[in-house]
Structure formats: structure tokens, C-alpha cells
Specification:
By secondary structure, the protein is α/β, with parallel strands linked by helices. The chain folds into two domains: 24-128 and 228-290, D-Maltodextrin-Binding Protein, domain 2, CATH 3.40.190.10; 131-226, Periplasmic binding protein-like II (D-Maltodextrin-Binding Protein, domain 2, 3-Layer(aba) Sandwich), CATH 3.40.190. The chain has helices at residues 2-22, 26-35, 61-77, 94-99, 159-171, 183-191, 202-211, 239-254, 257-266, 283-290, and strands spanning 37-42, 45-46, 50-54, 57-59, 83-88, 105-106, 111-112, 121-136, 151-155, 176-180, 197-201, 218-221, 227-234, 269-270, 275-276. The strands form four sheets. Strands 7, 8, 9, 10, 11, 12 and 13 form a seven-stranded mixed sheet that branches. Helix 3 crosses helix 8 (239-254). The model is unreliable at 5-22 (pLDDT under 50). Keywords: Signal, Transport. It holds the Pfam family SBP_bac_3.
């Protein structure tokens, strides 16, 4: 009898332990389950990745990926009516808002690098870009060395701004570097002549050129200064949530969804104005789809 009781106790303890492991959702999924709300960081003006169409309607390549992640959360937590709260973030505040719990996930144009990995975690990479320059066709600027003594704009708080300042100090170019609040302001400074060049990720620059009043007046120039990996940003030390996010993104790459999203957002007219970014898929992106990973590309 005693032997049977001991065996029953061991089995019961194992069952409890297994149940506890099964219910270990990690801090983010547990927070979402307890509140019935997930908070997404969204961008106001970063087409074709994550941008506002007017009112509360968001769109874009990265945004579509975030909606697939939300669907997976609804399914795992069995909350079909999960409330999705969207908060507009900027390059300057997105990391702070994630770390303090204001947002739970941000899928936009955030570069995964070793410096940021000290503060936050990143999902499987969703896009790979190169940093280049957008200039007026008759500017005479073709390479980075041509920026000497010019005004150059980049989004404040972006990796582009940091790289520009490092280049300026290292090569003694005498640039006046301007930090714009967002992509729209950066292009406006370029368009109005307050800056001779706008540095950003190549896909973003192609989008800005495409939506300009006269796209033929603008050129994307210079060899890529860096290659960078975009990831969805989440809090550190939350393996259950990262696993869910990574599985969604890897699955989208394996089943062809990412290829379809790429065609939709980079090779066809996009809302609301119907301009075409016309940005063919790079060899880096093709390799990523074949071999999904979450590596930072600090080059």
C-alpha cells in the first residue's frame, strides 16, 4: 500500500511538473493572456514596410507579417477575440517603449545589430537591405566621398545616422548631418534643398523615389555602405514568445507566403496612391528565404 502511494505521489508530481512546463508561456504571452490585449508598435510613414493609410488603417510588408504573428497568438492562447492595440513609434523611442512594456512587438524597419541585442531580442530576419543614398539626378553625388562638406539627412536614432556620424569623423568629410523625425521629413529636406543627400536603407529610398512627384528626378546611388537585417523586435529572455514568432516567420518563408508578400509590396502598385517601389528581390533575400535565421549583420 505504501509503495503504491509513493508511486502515485511520484506520478502526480511529474504530472504537475509537466503541466507547469506546458503552461509556462513566458512573460509576454502570459501578459497577453491575462489582459486580452497585444500592443504592437507601428510606423506612421515607412512604406512599403509599415505605414498608415489614414485613420487607424495600417499596411505594409512588415505589418502583414505582424498580423500573421497575432493570428498565431490567438490560436495558441485560444483567444479569437484578442484585442490588438497599435501604437505609433519612431526610430528614437521604439526600443524604450518595448523595454518598458508599452508595446509587446514591433515589426517595421528595425535593424538587428549586436549593440541593440544588448537591450532587446530579434526574431528570425524578415528583410535584408543595404544602406545607400538618395540624391537629385543632377547633384553630382555618386559615392560616399562626394558628400564632403554637404548637408546630409538621415532618420534620427537610426543606424544610418550613427553610421554617417562615424564615417564623418573617420574620413574627415565635414558633413553637416541632420536628424529627421521620420522618412517623410527626411525626403522633404532633400526635396527642398536643405540636404544634398538622404541616407537610408535601399528599399526605403526606392519607395521614397517612387512616391515623389517626379521620380525620374531622383537617383539611388553609392555602393551599399552596410548590409543590415531587419527583424521583429521583442523583449529579451522570453524564449516561448520568440519561439512562436520565429516559427511563424520561418513558416511563411517555407510555404511561399514571404515570396507573395514581396511581390505584393515591392513589385506591384501599393496603396493609397498606387506607386510601384520596383525593387527586385536581392540575392541576400533569396538566400534568407532558403535558410531563415536571426543573425545580426554588423558589417
Amino acid at each position: 500500500m505504501l509503495k503504491n502511494l509513493k508511486m502515485f505521489s511520484v506520478v502526480a508530481l511529474l504530472a504537475i511538473a509537466c503541466s507547469a512546463m506546458a503552461d509556462d508561456l513566458g512573460p509576454t504571452l502570459q501578459k497577453i493572456k491575462d489582459t486580452g490585449i497585444i500592443s504592437l508598435g507601428v510606423r506612421y510613414d515607412s512604406p512599403p514596410f509599415n505605414y498608415n493609410l489614414g485613420g487607424s488603417q495600417q499596411a505594409g510588408y512588415s505589418y502583414d507579417i505582424s498580423t500573421k504573428i497575432v493570428d498565431a497568438i490567438k490560436q495558441q492562447l485560444k483567444i479569437p477575440a484578442l484585442q490588438v492595440k497599435e501604437l505609433s513609434v519612431t526610430s528614437q523611442n521604439r526600443i524604450a517603449l518595448l523595454m518598458n512594456g508599452t508595446i509587446d512587438l514591433e515589426c517595421g524597419t528595425t535593424t538587428n545589430n549586436l549593440e541593440r541585442e544588448k537591450q532587446v531580442a530579434f526574431s528570425t530576419t524578415i528583410f535584408i537591405i543595404g544602406t545607400r543614398l538618395l540624391v537629385k539626378k543632377d547633384s553630382g553625388i555618386k559615392e560616399w566621398s562626394d558628400l564632403k562638406d554637404h548637408n546630409v539627412v538621415a532618420a534620427a536614432g537610426s543606424t544610418g545616422e550613427r553610421l554617417l556620424r562615424g564615417m564623418n569623423d573617420k574620413d574627415k568629410l565635414g558633413m553637416n548631418i541632420i536628424g529627421a523625425k521620420d522618412v517623410g521629413e527626411a525626403f522633404l529636406m532633400l526635396e527642398t534643398g536643405r540636404a544634398a543627400a538622404y541616407m537610408d536603407d535601399d528599399a526605403i529610398l526606392y519607395a521614397e523615389r517612387a512616391k515623389a512627384k517626379s521620380p525620374k528626378d531622383w537617383l539611388v546611388v553609392a555602393r551599399p555602405f552596410t548590409r543590415e537585417a531587419y527583424g521583429c523586435m521583442l523583449r529579451k529572455n522570453d524564449e516561448p514568445f520568440k519561439k512562436l514568432v520565429d516559427n511563424v516567420i520561418s513558416g511563411m518563408m517555407k510555404d511561399g507566403t514571404v515570396n507573395r508578400l514581396y511581390t505584393k509590396w515591392f513589385l506591384q502598385p501599393i496603396p493609397p496612391r498606387g506607386f510601384n517601389v520596383d525593387f527586385p528581390m536581392s540575392s541576400d533575400m533569396k538566400a534568407l528565404i532558403v535558410n531563415p535565421n536571426d543573425r545580426a549583420l554588423d558589417e
